[in-house]
Design goal:
The chain is built from five helices and no strands. By secondary structure, the protein is an all-alpha fold. The chain has a single domain, classed as Ferritin, core subunit, four-helix bundle (Ferritin), CATH 1.20.1260.10. Helix 1 runs antiparallel to helix 3, helix 2 runs parallel beside helix 5 and helix 3 packs antiparallel against helix 4. The two termini are about 30 Å apart. The mean pLDDT is about 95.
């Protein structure tokens, strides 16, 4: 049985994951509007992935006998200064999500909720991969550049990171 405080933290994380999905979907719309289909495709696939992360938490809360609560997730920003700005904000957001997951893991350990602690280990590993992914995109942007034809090649490189829907 989950404690009230763990349920509250899990529900907060569900909504943060759903916000992440909306954020990346909105970023994909911006990219596609700006003629960057590779980045748009990548961010759209990442939005699907974040939605799956939220649903996985949702299912865990339900399976543990508690009530998952969906709250308002807020409207993500719609304007960005550049493609680099999009990915800097994405990296910053993933670091925020990592801190949120770490807080949840710490609370589970503090309460000796080893089932939740074990469940969250997948998220700990996933966040390591997320930060590494977005840092590598920023590294590519720095290496390739974002002006003129470089932007075209960067967009093509970013498309390679897109995952097929449902993974």
């Amino acid at each position: 049985m989950l404690s009230e405080s763990i349920v509250a933290l899990l529900n907060r994380q569900i909504n943060r994951e759903f916000y992440s999905s909306n954020l990346y979907l909105q970023m994909s719309a911006w990219c596609e509007f700006k003629g960057l289909p590779g980045s748009g495709e990548f961010l759209k696939s990442h939005a699907d992935e974040e939605l799956a992360h939220g649903r996985k938490l949702f299912d865990y809360v339900h399976e543990a006998g508690a009530m998952p609560l969906i709250g308002s997730v807020g409207q993500p920003p719609t304007e960005f200064a550049s493609l680099t700005d999009v990915f800097e904000k994405t990296y910053e957001h993933e670091r925020f999500i990592t801190a949120s997951i770490n807080e949840l893991v710490g609370a589970a350990l503090e309460e000796k909720d080893f089932s939740t602690f074990q469940f969250l280990q997948w998220y700990v590993s996933e966040q390591h991969e997320e930060e590494k992914l977005f840092r590598s995109i920023l590294d590519k942007a720095s290496l390739i550049g974002t002006e003129g034809r470089s932007l075209y090649f960067l967009d093509k490189e970013i498309r390679k990171f897109a995952r097929p829907s449902g993974t």
